[in-house]
């Protein structure tokens, strides 16, 4: 039985280090294998002598460590991502597609298209036009006003605005000249604040060499960051990459998560996998059911009316 009066220092001294080469014991043994960091030596000479004997053991340590790290990474990568936020007006889940919602620079809110196109009334019940349905701020009419509001939202630390202004620089919209460097800088700022879509945009830039050197590894890294934060487009791209590499089970897992978030291109991809024999009929049935569940969560009469009025068959 241990003495209850034994000090912490005594307990620490009870753990004795042993040199793997000569067997010397001592707490001063602090030379370790440079690769696996698992085996200790009393000096550099012993480490060099033991290198040949330790080689196979070292490689096994490294293999096991790599497998463990991969398991931990996959555990995080394939976790169910956080759900998309709800529309702050109707409180229904926001559609993923940009056609199903709109970011408003006046209040920094993302509003579903059903609420965007619904009539707006003043305090007396009179219908008013061209006002934000959330904060009632008059709508903008010029590119200069839009960019000015985006910059004000950025000053307030709004990651959504940072990402959107980056898109304006990439796409030459709202009167701005194309500037990939500025776009990527803004996306990085938004990504640091946890904005998933910004990580996806950075990944896409590396995937296509837009403003940066083409780098598939960096693209995959940012796609993974975006996917883990809930971006279904990035998740779809990861699924495609795994499919191209012949990893069909991993591809299916990515695509199913994307489908649950409303990305219909992933449903088409699983349909194609089924036709090629890379997915089963049951896999495709589960994908269809998952997408129907998503549709049920975002569907409303008001959104249907907005979709019909603006002739957008990809509204959802």
Q: Care to describe what's here?
A:
With 316 residues, this protein is mainly alpha-helical. Among the domains are: 84-139, no CATH class; 141-223, Serine Threonine Protein Phosphatase 5, Tetratricopeptide repeat (Alpha Horseshoe), CATH 1.25.40.10; 231-297 and 312-316. It has helices at residues 8-14, 44-77, 113-116, 143-155, 159-171, 180-192, 196-208, 216-228, 232-244, 248-260, 264-275, 281-298, 301-309, and strands spanning 31-32, 40-41, 101-104, 109-112, 120-121, 127-128. The strands form 3 sheets. Strands 1-2 form a two-stranded antiparallel sheet. The protein starts with 7 loop residues before the first helix and ends in a 7-residue tail after the last helix.
């Amino acid at each position: 039985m241990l003495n209850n009066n034994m000090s912490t220092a005594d307990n620490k001294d009870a753990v004795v280090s042993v040199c793997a080469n000569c067997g010397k014991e001592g707490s001063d043994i602090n030379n370790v294998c440079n690769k696996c960091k698992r085996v200790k030596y009393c000096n550099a000479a012993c480490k060099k002598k033991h290198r040949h004997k330790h080689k196979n053991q070292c490689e096994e340590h490294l293999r096991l460590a790599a497998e463990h790290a991969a398991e931990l990474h996959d555990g995080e990568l394939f976790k169910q991502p956080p759900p998309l936020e709800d529309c702050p007006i109707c409180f229904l889940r926001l559609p993923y597609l940009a056609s199903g919602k709109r970011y408003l620079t006046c209040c920094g809110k993302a509003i579903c298209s059903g609420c965007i196109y619904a009539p707006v009334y003043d305090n007396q019940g009179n219908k008013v036009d061209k006002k934000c349905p959330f904060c009632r701020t008059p709508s903008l009419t010029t590119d200069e006003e839009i960019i000015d509001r985006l910059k004000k939202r950025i000053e307030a630390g709004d990651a959504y605005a940072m990402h959107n202004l980056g898109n304006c620089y990439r796409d030459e919209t709202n009167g701005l000249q194309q500037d990939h460097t500025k776009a990527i800088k803004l996306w990085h700022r938004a990504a640091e604040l946890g904005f998933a879509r910004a990580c996806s945009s950075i990944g896409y830039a590396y995937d296509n060499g837009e403003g940066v050197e083409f780098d598939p590894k960096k693209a995959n890294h940012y796609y993974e960051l975006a996917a883990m934060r809930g971006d279904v487009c990035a998740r779809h791209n990861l699924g495609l990459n795994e499919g191209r590499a012949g990893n069909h089970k991993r591809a299916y897992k990515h695509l199913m998560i994307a489908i649950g978030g409303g990305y219909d291109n992933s449903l088409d991809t699983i349909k194609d996998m089924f036709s090629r024999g890379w997915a089963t009929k049951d896999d495709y049935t589960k994908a269809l059911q998952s997408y129907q569940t998503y549709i049920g969560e975002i569907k409303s009469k008001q959104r249907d009316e907005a979709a019909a009025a603006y002739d957008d068959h990809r509204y959802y």
